Every structure is written in C-alpha cells, then in structure tokens.
Amino acid sequence: MSNFIYIMVAGTFLTAISQILLKQSADEKHESFIKEYLNWKVIVAYILFGTVLLSNTYAYTRVDMKYGAVIETLAYVWIFIMSVTLLHEKITRRKLLGNLLIITGILIYRL
Fold it and tell me: pLDDT, tens digit, for every residue of 29-88?
C-alpha cells in the first residue's frame, strides 16, 4: 500500500505544478483566443492533470478512500508553497492559517 500512497503524493505535487502553469499562462498576454488555450503551459498542465487522474485511479485500487481524501489535500499546501516561491504571491494570514489547518488535519488523521 505504501508505494501507492507515494504515487498519490506525487500526484498532488504534479497537480500543483499544473495549477502554477495555468496561472502563469492566464497572467500572460496572448496574440489570439486560440493561442490563449493552445500554448505549451496549458497543454502541459492538462497532460499533467490527465496523468494524475490515471495514476490516482490506479492507486485507489490499493489505497482506502479514507486515506486518499487526506492525501489529496496536500495539493493545496504545494500550491501555496509554489505560489509564494515561484509566483511571488504574498503570504496572507488567511492563506497561512488555512494551510496550517490542512497540515494539522493531516497530522491528526495520521495519529
């Protein structure tokens, strides 16, 4: 079961990367409507989403749903970390508190 949990944790990281790519693409100016949706960042982001969907479907064959739901909340933490480091977004009290609550919930559930 532990290898499948690692697959799901890796999936949360890939989900965060895809979210960052979509955010970067949305912040850029595009020459046309088509190029707004058909550029490398958007395409890679959706390929990552598809990969995560397939890998999670596979992982759920060996991981109980009760663990999967908790593992998937890690995506929010990864997105927070990446948005601060890569997109240079400000750390607000609400964002920090929300992520601390997620981490606390994961730790409590783990115990």
Answer: 999 989 999 999 999 999 999 999 999 999 999 999 889 989 999 999 999 999 999 999
**Residues with Cβ within 8 Å of residue 40, at least 6 apart in sequence:** none
**Burial grade of 73 (CB within 10 A; 0-12, 13-18, 19 or more):** middle
Instruction: State the greatest distance between any 2 C-alpha atoms of the chain, in Å, as a whole number.
Output: 52
The token pair at 56 is: 């999670």
- The total of structural domains in the chain comes to 1
First-to-final CA distance of the chain:
18
DSSP three-state, residue 73: coil
State residue 70's pLDDT score.
92
Nearest to 41 by CA among 25, 28, 27: 25
